[in-house]
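Exercise (ungraded).
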Amino acid sequence: MHALCSVRAVEDALEIEIPNNARILRNLIEAIQYVQDHVIHFYHLHALDWVDVVSALDADPAATSKLAQSTSDWGKSSASYFKGVKEKLGSYVSSGQLGPFANAYWGHSAYKLPPEANLMAVAHYLEALDWQRVVIRAHALLGSKNPHLQTYLVGGMAAPIDPNSQWAINADTIAQLKGMFATAKEFVEKVYLPDVLAVAPFYLEWAGIGGGLGNFLSYGDYPDASGEFFLPQGYILGKDLSTVHTVDHQDIVEHVDHSWYESDNGNGKGLHPWKGETKPKYTGPKPPYEFLNTDEKYTWMKAPRLSDQAMEVGPLARMLVAYASGHEDVQATVNTVLGALGVGPEVLFSTLGRTAARCVETVIMAQKLDEWTNELAASMGSGDLDIHEWSGWEPENWPAEAFGWGYTEAPRGALGHWIHIKDQKIHNYQCVVPSTWNSSPRDASGAPGAYESALIGTPIADPEMPLEVLRTIHSFDPCMACGVHLLDAKGRQINQVIMKPTSSYIGPLQTLRSRGG
Amino acid sequence: MEEQRNIKTLILGVGNLLLSDEGVGVRVIERLQAEYDLPEQVQVLDGGTLGLDLLYYLEGIENLLIIDAIEMDAEPGELLRMEGEEVPSFLSMKMSPHQIGIPDMLFAAKLRDLYPPNVVLWGVQPADLDVSMDLSPLIQAKVDVLVGKTLAELDTWGHQAHPKS
């Protein structure tokens, strides 16, 4: 995602229009990443906040089969299948090799699912591991190299397309992509969505917890041939779905008053990223420490604000902006999910809403994959093989000074890169990544960001095992290994949660991460 | 466009290039790719900071060599070799991000019956983990050593690498 965002920043600065095929390829690579990332997030990071793996060992395989067949016509649903999963899980638990299952709060009173639902979810956790191995091959097909795709270029893409060449994205590639995308879509519709709908009724109290700011920002993404975004741009304030405000990136600033940075010009007011400064200066206590004073500087995150407002970004923000903008696909899918759960749109402003919105978005994007593959095939078929615009390539043709804003909607939310080019060199470069919006500390006025707001009022059954905090933080799809500090009413620290997200959901410095922060 | 999966041995260098010696595993991969012709059955992979995304590359392989910077409370530059079942349990005690990702990858491989028969880890104690694209001089000097260790492991597994002419 950072590769895409960075080339868009330079293209904006140099006023380069990319060819139609490059636009389609970028949309496809991004869309399959949404589908893969969201499924992995749900099953391999977030599901274990709701699913008690150890309880699955008490499940009756026949009853699990009956449950699975009542939620979906997915093929892997026989009693003997679930019996095999249960036996395999049992052998791992008894061997003590729990791996990522080892650090959880099994048996916590906040787990509500019956053993059969837990076993079904564990089976799908394992199936999702196989599924993602198939689906991610689309990136190798489209990106010319995986991991770390190499195809993004300022002006377009590098991997050639040609229906008749074996060295290019060709007719065979299209056929393979269509097969993978059908696999992707089937799993999303027959496993992921039914699982969310099966689990949610046990946790409906979470439709009233974790709402937080009520401000939602989407930069918009997936341009069509006319430049219109499939997922629209806009922002919502105070949970008011009647008005979608227009985004002007000039109204974005980053504050560092509570962040471990020095600033020459930004103290007390923040700086637009074109004028942004990144001068780390750690002034916190010497680790390991027991307490961080949030009245002072307390984090490496900066505090981005849009027109002085903190914002939540991510799938929920995108779905709400689209819903409020009258987006037909989004309205239809959101209403189907709300109807299945027997609840109204107000429940979207919650931890459960965030998790459901990610699933809704996956369903919608999985439907677009085949359509956009057909669009690419039709374009190639018409003889248009152009993937790159060369006019801005030579630095000698650049203006003496140029400013650019590149943006994408990364899977976990609004991602922006700002570039200032001077004398053919990068003069300043700033990234504002999704987890910086969501995990933002307080700004100069003391107003908190999305995580902090969302945790206010969260009920904690056992402060020694704050599973409920993890549910809300994980619902944002955080990008980094976070330390969450809980304070009691007297300001004493009562516990510390060190979260260890699975897979690649983390990076030591989130702005340095490879997949869109 | 798609690579054919006829890979018997995977050399996986992991780490974050932006954190100085943390990226030593990837630097070894770069050196191997630049200076050696390797048999087709050997895949050399820059795993970066990925985890589960790498599961695909374990499909069907017999030998896995992981190269990584390792915090082991030793003198900077000290090398470590480990193999078999020790590798995931050792790595799971580590704290940096890809070091959470790689044990998860290995555990997922076990769950899905993809765990390679032979797993070897070569690690080096870092000297410097500050934000920098460069290795410290001490660890830079270890890249050649780790390349040599890698070639020796390949030899054990029946693969001959040749310096590029």
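Further reading is listed at the end of the chapter. For now, observe: Chain A touches chain B at residues 40, 44, 88, 92, 97, 99-100, 126, 129-130, 132-133, 136-137, 140-141, 144, 147-148, 159, 167-170, 173, 176, 480-481, 500-504, 506-509, 512-514 (CB under 8 Å). Chain A has one domain: 2-247+311-509.
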